Amino acid sequence: MLPQTLLSILLTTVLSTTTIAMSLAPRDTIHASDMDRYNAVMSTVKGSQFLHLYLKDNQVKLDIYEDPSNALVSQNSFAPSENAPKYFEQEEKREEALQNEEAEAVNKDNSAANKDTGNGQAA
């Protein structure tokens, strides 16, 4: 039988690997029939630009913006793959988790600040 700590490490590694393997990338949202066009569009993206990828009207939309002006450079639509809804759901969950982490950090900072100033202590 494996020691408890070794078993814990193995389980953590397996679960982490499974989570990583299940993560979808933005290109997973594009149907195979549109992949060449997607690759062509992506090859035009410059380092000073940022992307907004979203699902709308049963199409994967890719807007390219210029940084720092936020000027819209181009808009593209692609046929969605069967994984498109899963990707956007994954990203929504990831965003929620990040927001929760940020809120917890702010609450922790506020709590520490209140303790430092005596505002968090009972009278």
From TrEMBL:
Show the ranges annotated as biased composition (Basic and acidic residues): 88-97
Q: Which UniProt keywords apply?
A: Signal
Q: Where is this region: Disordered?
A: 73-123
- What residue range is the signal peptide? 1-21
Question: Bias regions of kind Polar residues — which residues?
Answer: 108-123
Q: What is this protein called?
A: Uncharacterized protein
Originating organism: Talaromyces stipitatus (strain ATCC 10500 / CBS 375.48 / QM 6759 / NRRL 1006) (Penicillium stipitatum)
Q: What is the lineage of its organism?
A: Eukaryota, Fungi, Dikarya, Ascomycota, Pezizomycotina
